[in-house]
């Protein structure tokens, strides 16, 4: 009998065709498995789970999934999955590193341009019929050349953003648990900061590219926002809870910082009402990896991890398994 694979949301057809050749797909609708109860019900007969970053794969879910052998997240970030609980039950967990790096690097650069040059604010002005001709003092923004981009979390996506920012003439500074190898640092001419507070104090743009963990929860809080220069911008394409959203809304309102480009939110899909109103925030609905090419590649990588586990391959043969 074919193994059963629960796919929590509609994903690219090519991925479903690929998975169908191996298992029987239980296909979810948009948001159908976004609660623990619905997910537990859906997992009663499933051998594998292909889930989204919005799927709450908690300890309770894992303990109530009698046949589950593998969980593959349709994302690189996997803070929605209790990996320890899965490993305790011998369930393998995979994510999708590498395949979305370039799409996210492009997106971060675009978001930086949009917020520093007021794209959305100016577009709204035009659409509202307020454009009455070229204005010498209209919508002035910050030029990027010579400014410092401070990146917290210099992994694959942080580095791809840094390469693009270098091409725009920005200087690169970063904070990581450990400094990067010399060849990478030299290629980016990047300066390492042991203290993320010092980086926040000095950067013209502070970008969050770290995973969400206990250690990074509310990493950007009221104190950090206070020490950032008032001309500085915050970019967040990592996870919403890395930022204290209420503190950020206040900082934007009071002009403590110049603006913020946000693709992620603390309580997705909810967005703090003051951020919705903030003219100096460019806010987007978690679309950093949203290209046709990348979403298909994410799906194929997740699907291949499922097929490999169900075929009995060893961990060392499955490159995107999360270990440890
Ligand atoms: C991921 O894959 O974790 C990202 O949030 C996609 O934007």
Rg (C-alpha, Å): 21 Å
Bound molecules: (2R)-2,3-dihydroxypropanoic acid
Under CATH, the topology of the largest domain can be stated as Rossmann fold
Helix content: 25-40%
Strand order of the largest sheet: 8-7-6-9-10-11-12
**Low-confidence segments, ≥5 residues, pLDDT <50?**
none
In what range is the share of β-strand residues?
Answer: 5-15%
Distance between the termini: 32 Å
Provide the succession of SSEs. Answer: EHEHEHEHEHHEHEHEHEHEHEHEH
Mean pLDDT: 98
Total beta strands: 12
- Return the domain count: 2
CATH homologous superfamily designation of the largest domain = NAD(P)-binding Rossmann-like Domain
Note the total helix count: 13
Going by CATH, the architecture of the largest domain would be 3-Layer(aba) Sandwich
Shape: globular
Structural class, by secondary structure, is alpha/beta
At the first level of CATH, the class of the largest domain is Alpha Beta
How would you characterize the largest beta sheet?
7 strands, parallel
Describe the structure.
The structure is a single chain. The chain has 324 residues and is α/β, with parallel strands linked by helices. The protein folds into two domains: 4-98 and 292-317, Rossmann fold, CATH 3.40.50; 101-283, NAD(P)-binding Rossmann-like Domain (Rossmann fold, 3-Layer(aba) Sandwich). It is built from 13 helices and twelve strands. It has helices spanning 13-20, 36-42, 59-63, 83-88, 101-116, 119-127, 156-167, 182-188, 196-202, 222-227, 245-253, 273-277, 292-310, and strands spanning 4-7, 24-27, 48-51, 70-73, 92-94, 148-152, 171-175, 191-192, 205-208, 233-236, 259-262, 281-283. Strands 8-7-6-9-10-11-12 form a seven-stranded parallel beta sheet, with helices on both faces. A five-stranded parallel beta sheet has the order 2-1-3-4-5. It is globular. The two termini are 32 Å apart. The relative contact order is 0.14. The model has no long low-confidence stretch (mean pLDDT 98). It binds (2R)-2,3-dihydroxypropanoic acid (DGY). (2R)-2,3-dihydroxypropanoic acid (DGY) is lined by residues 53, 75-77, 100, 288-289.
């Amino acid at each position: 009998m074919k193994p059963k694979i629960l796919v929590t949301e509609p994903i690219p057809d090519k991925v479903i065709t690929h998975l169908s050749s191996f298992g029987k797909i239980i296909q979810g609708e948009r948001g159908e498995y976004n609660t623990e109860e619905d997910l537990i019900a859906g997992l009663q007969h499933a051998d594998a789970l292909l889930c989204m970053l919005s799927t709450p794969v908690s300890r309770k879910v894992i303990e109530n999934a009698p046949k589950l052998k593998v969980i593959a997240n349709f994302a690189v970030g996997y803070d929605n999955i209790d990996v320890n609980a899965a490993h305790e039950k011998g369930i393998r967990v995979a994510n999708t590193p590498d395949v979305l790096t370039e799409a996210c690097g492009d997106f971060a650069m675009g978001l930086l341009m949009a917020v520093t040059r007021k794209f959305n604010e100016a577009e709204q002005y035009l659409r509202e019929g307020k454009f009455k001709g070229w204005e010498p003092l209209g919508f002035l923004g910050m030029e990027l050349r010579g400014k410092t981009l401070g990146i917290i979390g210099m992994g694959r996506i942080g580095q791809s953003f840094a390469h693009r920012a270098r091409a725009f003439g920005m200087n690169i500074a970063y904070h990581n648990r450990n400094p990067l190898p010399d060849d990478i640092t030299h290629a980016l001419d990047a300066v390492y900061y042991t203290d993320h507070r010092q980086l926040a104090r000095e950067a013209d743009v502070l970008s969050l590219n770290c995973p969400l963990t206990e250690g990074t929860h509310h990493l950007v809080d009221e104190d950090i926002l206070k020490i950032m220069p008032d001309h500085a911008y915050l970019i967040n394409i990592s996870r919403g809870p890395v930022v204290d959203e209420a503190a950020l809304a206040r900082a934007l309102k009071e002009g403590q910082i110049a603006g913020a480009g946000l693709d992620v939110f603390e309580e997705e899909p909810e967005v703090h009402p003051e951020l919705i109103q903030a003219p100096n925030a460019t806010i987007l609905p978690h679309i950093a990896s949203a290209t046709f090419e990348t979403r298909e590649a994410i799906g194929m990588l997740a699907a291949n991890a499922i097929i490999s586990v169900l075929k009995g391959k060893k961990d060392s043969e499955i490159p995107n398994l999360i270990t440890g």
